[in-house]
Here is the input.
Amino acid sequence: MTESLGKYTFRIFRYDPERSARPRRDTFEMEVSRGMTVLDCLQAIKAEQDGTLTFRRSCRSAICGSCAMNINGKNDLACHLQVALLRGRRIAVEPLPGYPVIRDLVVCMDEFYDSLMRVLPWFVRKTGFPDRELPQSPADRDRIDNAVNCILCGSCTSSCPSFWYNNRSIGPGALLKAFRFIFDSRDEARGERLALVDGRDGVWRCRTVYNCEEACPKGLRPNEAIAALKIAALKETV
Here is the structure.
């Protein structure tokens, strides 16, 4: 029999532009069992208490990034964050900050995806692709290993004050993706990408606040990648 953790109170951000121009917070109480995630609770609330509650979810395995939201003041993935790991019995669930809210916990990610496209997030091969795989040494793979694991949930960019101030800022999520290709030994667009991120809306917009690293649910290090991009950009212009 699953152990019960008792009753928890969920205070959830609600916004329906078809009904009201102003958001509100609704409160729900439910019995929580050990092992339940925040997403499990949201789905139970939607199924049993309010079918209009709206949120995104897909893989339930912390690899698609769909269920990223702000939980008790911190960006995280609802599908892997267990309720038992949160302090207290009152849980605040909000949409990711910094993005326009479409409805309830669903935000518009267009600004994030636009910034991502600005850094050319795909392989560029000027000499063409060989008939077999492109070889890469373990050391070369280790250099980009951290960045490759990004699931594009948008949590880091959502937490960035520079992005809040100016949504034209490329943001830590896209800069981490730029790092992933600029330092990939198999790619051949290093100079073009460095030029794209070397500007007032690129790496130099970063103020090293470290919000992005605290917000990343995968424990990645965008600030470390941005620092490497700054050094590479300076060397490229010398």
